Amino acid sequence: MVHDPITREGLRSGAVEIVPGALATFAFGLAFGVYAAQHGLTFGLALFMNTAMAAGTAQFAAVALWHEPLPWLAMIAASVAVNLRFTLMSATLRPYWGGVPAWRAYLSFFFLYDSNWAQLMRRHVDGRGENGYLLSSGAFMFVLWEIGMIGGYQLGVMVAEPGRFGIDFILPAFLATTTASLWRRRSDYLPLVVAALVAVLCRRYVSVEFYILAGALAGSLAVLVRRPREDGNAA
């Protein structure tokens, strides 16, 4: 089924309903700004990364590996591994964008985030999936993401020891909250625990460059191992 790519109702609904997610994105941007400043990125470079990538988790993964000489291969691999989910997320929207010109679709998909994708899919299921929803909700989140990063970077420059004020706790708190929101049932603990354990062990004993990639791959493999067993039990 093909929907009008831009509708007034979709634009309005996207901007209004995404406010809680946008505020969380602002906090995430604030944390990234502090993190980038503390890791020695210039303001221009941090702003360029924030604007061009607009992918918070991948940006944290890249900056975590930021040291001289830059481990380009590890940074690219970690970013790709973290962002692979967007390939599947955008594919699920294909049935609703069949007749949309490519340039409009890709413009909207630049503003694809986890939270507005989830809300848009629920609207499609309910028959209310106006595609303007993705553009307005994502653009709103993007603006707050930029503002948060700019403020966070300035804060990171001014505060020599962010730990004294708890600023460095913003990122762990945000990621812990995100992880908790994905914990739907008891069996979900397996990929989370496996990914965390492999990442910690890899960083400590193997490599400080590939631990994020190792954790992501280990968690994904744990899901693949668990899925056939669940399907068999369901059958």
Return Rg in Å: 19 Å
Task: Tell me the series of helices and strands, N- to C-terminal.
Answer: HHHHHHHHHHHH
- The overall strand count is 0
- Integer tally of domains: 2
Helix content: over 70%
Low-confidence segments, given as residue ranges, are none
Give the biggest sheet.
none
Outline: globular
Helix tally equals 12
Strand content: under 5%
Q: How would you state the average pLDDT, rounded?
A: 79
Kindly, what is the distance between the CA atoms of the first and last residues, rounded to a whole number of angstroms?
Answer: 31 Å
Structural overview:
The model has no long low-confidence stretch (mean pLDDT 79). The protein has two domains: 8-182, no CATH class; 185-235, no CATH class. The longest helix has 27 residues, at 132-158. It is mostly helical and 235 residues long. 72% of the residues lie in helices and 0% in strands.
Feature tags:
235 residues; mainly alpha; 2 domains; 12 helices
Summarize the structure.
This protein is mainly α and 235 residues long. It folds into two domains: 8-182, no CATH class; 185-235, no CATH class. It has twelve helices and no strands.
